[in-house]
């Protein structure tokens, strides 16, 4: 007996004979339908642009469809076993299984059933998968389905200038490898959410984001930032009257001119700059590499760093400065200054800036607790310290409390261990190291060059902490 004959007689004939039972037929149809949908998805994703960049599509690709496929396959032998047991029990199991005959009506019947059932399953599984994928592509899914872990980023995202840019535009790299990696990561994250094993706070290291060329530069042309930008910072003091002052600076944003000269803040970093950081938030930068004259590379090393120059090496791009592009977390001081500039909390409330900051910075176990304690705290303060204010301006106190709570809820998420400063803003140098991670006057080359620390390289300070800046009225503001 040839091998084929052997397989046919001992495997295929019994398989087809016993397989003619409803359970096995449905299992077979489900498995084949899932396989078709999977092949379709892969074809679309590999060949076309129509594929989804969403990491959670992995849920469909790696969990849902394969699960149906496997389930279908498992059900087939179970059906066969049950059928066999039935035939043995009734003594009707044939000693020789009939030949596979496509002309036999019963066999054709079963085959038709499988074809029709496959088609119906294909439509059902296909639509379910497609709808699942489109849903998962929406920012609201990324931001809310993983409700707890990503809520801080979701809230901050909605306040950012990029609240209309899909999460996946920045967070999922291009190319097939990134595609598969992202799908695996997405599936892993969902498992993390299900079993509550995700890290708190969550981080998305810059190295895991798509390169700026494929994101920011799709919309912002880096060769078109030219010139200066006026920046006015309004601050309120911690004294009784909450005195307002302004700091005015002209930022030398620069860029690239028509003769390809690089200038200012944007221009000088468009050259290929690389750096080495020792932490995964890229806050401690120990070495910087910039193109020098004649194509040589200048190495600037942090002179305060005593260890070896070892760590994560990265090419600097937009996101090294614009960490807050899509998730603008604030500092309590900036947030309160901004709120008071727009009128609430009112400067008419004595010491509201000072008290507000104390209440915002206090530690609470949850946003709910903060809501209660901030309100209580502010009310108690005025009731006990300023009874006259409390009796005449209790409505303003109430408004101030609500404004403080809003600031807190937008920036602090105790359940995710996200508090003030968890996510550093790299623009500037007053709240976080920011520019001074490199421009601190300590990063020097062997030849004695230093990454500049000259205030006027980056900005001209026109006026600092001035209650009545003349320059603004001269320029025609207000
Ligand atoms: C315009 C680009 C952009 C978009 C759109 C965007 N992000 Fe981000 N995301 C960033 C950048 C930049 C970081 C900061 C990375 C860092 O600080 O190392 C970040 C960080 C994160 C982090 C980790 C926190 C951190 O700082 O490490 C999470 C989680 C996150 N984003 C989720 C989302 C979600 C959810 C959406 C959509 C609702 C979204 N992002 C949309 C650019 C973007
Ligand atoms: C899909 C297009 C798109 C992408 C991608 C995009 N931006 Fe923007 N960006 C915009 C638009 C539109 C605005 C203006 C929004 C507004 O003024 O409300 C803007 C505004 C900005 C601003 C000015 C915000 C302000 O407060 O004045 C900065 C800075 C910025 N983007 C940086 C970035 C960076 C960095 C990235 C990459 C991480 C990026 N953008 C990706 C479209 C985009
Ligand atoms: C060295 C740090 C740094 C890098 C790198 C950088 N920026 Fe900026 N960018 C700044 C600073 C500083 C400002 C002005 C600060 C502010 O708006 O508060 C700014 C402002 C902007 C603005 C607002 C401009 C305006 O006229 O209001 C846009 C848009 C922007 N950057 C996009 C980008 C893009 C896109 C890239 C990458 C090609 C990039 N930036 C790279 C530091 C940087
Ligand atoms: C990763 C290190 C790094 C960070 C962070 C960084 N820079 Fe720089 N910056 C450099 C290097 C290196 C040079 C010199 C580039 C060159 O020689 O072409 C430079 C040059 C400059 C220059 C030109 C100075 C001159 O000689 O005229 C300006 C302006 C500047 N940076 C502004 C900023 C600002 C503003 C920030 C923060 C928003 C910032 N930089 C953040 C590394 C950095
Ligand atoms: C490498 C570039 C760079 C250098 C050098 C630099 N600054 Fe700045 N500085 C910035 C940027 C960028 C901002 C704007 C931050 C923002 O957009 O909020 C800023 C903001 C400020 C502000 C406004 C602060 C605020 O309330 O946010 C002051 C004051 C200031 N700088 C003082 C100085 C002084 C003084 C020096 C010199 C010792 C100096 N800076 C050197 C980049 C620089």
Q: What can you tell me about this protein's structure?
A:
The protein is built from 18 helices and ten strands. The protein has three domains: 202 residues, no CATH class; 153 residues, no CATH class; 85 residues, no CATH class. A hairpin with a 7-residue loop joins strand 1 and strand 2. The mean pLDDT is 85. The strands form three sheets. A five-stranded antiparallel sheet has the order 8-5-6-7-9, with no helix packed on it. With 478 residues, it is of the alpha+beta class. The site of one heme C (HEC) has 24 residues, from helix 10, strand 6, helix 11 and helix 17.
Give a brief outline of the structure.
The chain has 478 residues and is α+β, with helices and mostly antiparallel strands.
């Amino acid at each position: 007996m040839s091998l084929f004959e052997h397989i046919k007689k001992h495997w295929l004939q019994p398989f087809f004979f016993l397989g003619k039972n409803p359970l096995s037929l449905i299992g077979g149809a489900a498995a084949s339908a899932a396989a078709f949908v999977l092949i379709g998805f892969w074809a679309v994703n590999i060949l076309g642009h129509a594929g989804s960049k969403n990491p959670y599509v992995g849920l469909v690709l790696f969990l849902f469809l394969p699960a149906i496929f496997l389930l279908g396959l498992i059900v087939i032998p179970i059906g066969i076993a049950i059928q066999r047991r039935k035939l043995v029990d009734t003594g009707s199991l044939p000693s020789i299984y009939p030949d596979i005959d496509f002309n036999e009506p019963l066999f054709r019947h079963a085959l038709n059933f499988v074809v029709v059932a496959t088609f119906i399953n294909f439509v059902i599984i296909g639509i379910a998968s497609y709808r699942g994928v489109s849903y998962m592509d929406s920012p609201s899914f990324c931001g809310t389905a993983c409700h707890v872990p990503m809520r801080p980023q979701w809230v901050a995202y909605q306040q950012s200038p990029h609240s209309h840019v899909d999460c996946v535009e920045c967070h999922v790299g291009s190319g097939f490898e990134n595609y598969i990696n992202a799908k695996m990561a997405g599936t892993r994250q969902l498992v993390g959410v299900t079993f509550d094993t995700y890290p708190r706070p969550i981080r998305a290291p810059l190295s895991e984001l798509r390169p700026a060329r494929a994101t920011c530069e799709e919309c912002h042309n880096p060769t078109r930032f030219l010139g200066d930008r006026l920046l006015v910072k309004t601050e309120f003091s911690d004294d009784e009257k909450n005195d307002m002052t302004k700091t005015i600076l002209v930022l030398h944003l620069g860029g690239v001119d028509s003769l390809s000269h690089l200038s200012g803040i944007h221009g000088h970093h468009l050259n290929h700059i690389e750096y080495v950081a020792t932490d995964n938030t890229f806050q401690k930068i120990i070495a910087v590499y910039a193109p020098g004259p004649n194509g040589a590379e200048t190495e600037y090393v942090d002179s305060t760093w005593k260890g070896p120059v070892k760590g994560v090496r990265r090419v600097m791009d937009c996101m090294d400065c614009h960490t807050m592009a899509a998730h603008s977390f604030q500092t309590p001081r900036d947030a309160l200054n901004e709120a008071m500039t727009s009128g609430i909390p009112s400067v008419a409330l004595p010491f509201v800036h000072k008290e507000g900051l104390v209440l915002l910075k206090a530690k609470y176990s949850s946003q709910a607790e903060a809501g209660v304690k901030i309100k209580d705290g502010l009310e108690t303060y005025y009731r006990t310290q300023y009874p006259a204010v409390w009796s005449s301006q209790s409505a303003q106190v109430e408004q101030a409390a609500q404004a403080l709570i809003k600031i807190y809820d937008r920036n602090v998420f105790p359940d995710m261990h996200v508090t003030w400063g968890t996510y550093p803003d790299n623009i500037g140098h007053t709240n976080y190291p920011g520019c001074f991670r490199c421009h601190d006057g300590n990063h020097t080359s062997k030849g004695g060059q230093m990454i500049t620390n000259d205030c006027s390289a980056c900005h001209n300070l026109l006026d600092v902490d001035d209650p009545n800046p003349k320059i603004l009225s001269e320029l025609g503001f207000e």
